[in-house]
Amino acid sequence: MRKILMYAVLATISLAACKKDQSSTQPAGEVKADWTSDNSTNNYTSKAYSPYTVFNNVWGSGYGYQSIWANNGNNWGIWSNHPNTSGIKSYPNSERKVQRLLSSLNSLTSHYDVTVPADGSWGADYDVWTNNDKYEIMLWMNYRGNVGPIASAYPNGVAQINVANKSVGGHTWNIYKGPVNANGKQVFSFLRTSNSLVGDVNIKDIMNYLRNDLQWIGNETIDRVQFGFEVTSTAGGRDHRVNNYTVSFN
């Protein structure tokens, strides 16, 4: 009886060690998910969880492997192994359509709660798009490594801050105005002055600040709100998880 029990214990230890070893090279093996996919055959797989849609969205030059899992549009994550080179490799995200004129919105808010790795190069960011993608408003909630905003000027190789330490939308930001590209799109980047893992952001207040105070935009139609991870490097494999994400408007 003691021998059988000893074998059972050893088997349990061996299985646990095997799982631990596997998790160091494979994506989130113990995550129970409604949907999983990866970029081995398609870089742009997606799953609709009305009113959200989750996208894997691997698009940058020199990308590596990336898998995605989701239980719904509010709880999802990725495991990625992108090489330690410059340039964005992917932006996996969850998106909610808004498609309302800014002036017609009484409120537009979002909640985020993420788990991120301690190394690599990436950002946990919102992308707020106006109609026809004329403007892209990026809200950098948490970021590390070799990443930075698109900006109009880079004196001495450093992005120029247009507005420093501005408190709006429930957070304090450094704000960068990017150039208009060949397609007529302009990027405005709000980089939080300290990293955050969980919180709420008042997106309407930020859009009104862009319109009324900075006068960088007009009374635009807010097309969609995305939140996800802009990944540059996760060499060796890293997890990013969205524990909870919501977008609300009326």
Description:
- The protein has 250 residues and is mainly β.
- It folds into two domains: 1-30; 34-249, Sandwich (Jelly Rolls), CATH 2.60.120.180.
- It has helices spanning 2-23, 203-213, and strands at 35-38, 46-49, 52-55, 65-72, 75-81, 93-101, 108-115, 121-130, 135-144, 163-168, 171-180, 186-192, 198-202, 221-233, 238-249.
- Strands 2-3-6-14-8-9-12-11-10 form a nine-stranded mixed β-sheet.
- The radius of gyration is 20 Å and the shape is globular.
- The chain starts with a helix and ends with a strand.
Task: Summarize the structure in short.
With 250 residues, the protein is mostly beta strands.
Write the layout of secondary structure elements.
Elements (H helix, E strand, L loop, with lengths): L1 H22 L11 E4 L7 E4 L2 E4 L9 E8 L2 E7 L11 E9 L6 E8 L5 E10 L4 E10 L18 E6 L2 E10 L5 E7 L5 E5 H11 L7 E13 L4 E12 L1
Pfam families: Glyco_hydro_12
Organism: Pedobacter rhodius
Family: Belongs to the glycosyl hydrolase 12 (cellulase H) family.
Kindly list the characteristics that best describe this protein.
Jelly Rolls; disordered N terminus; 9-stranded mixed β-sheet; 250 residues; 47% strand
Give the amount of beta strand, in percent.
over 45%
Alpha carbon gyration radius: 20 Å
Query: How does CATH name the architecture of the largest domain?
Result: Sandwich
Spatial strand order of the main sheet = 2-3-6-14-8-9-12-11-10
Span between N and C termini?
A: 66 Å
Number of strands: 15
Which structural category fits the helices and strands? mainly beta
Overall shape: globular
Main beta sheet: strand number and arrangement?
A: 9 strands, mixed
- CATH uppermost class of the largest domain: Mainly Beta
**CATH H level of the largest domain: which superfamily?**
Glycoside hydrolase family 11/12, catalytic domain
Element pattern in H and E: HEEEEEEEEEEEEEHEE
What do the pLDDT scores average to?
A: 90
Which fold name fills CATH's third level, the topology of the largest domain? Jelly Rolls
Please report the number of helical segments: 2
Determine the fraction of residues in helical runs and give it as a percent range. 10-25%
Low-confidence stretches: 1-26
Count up the domains.
2
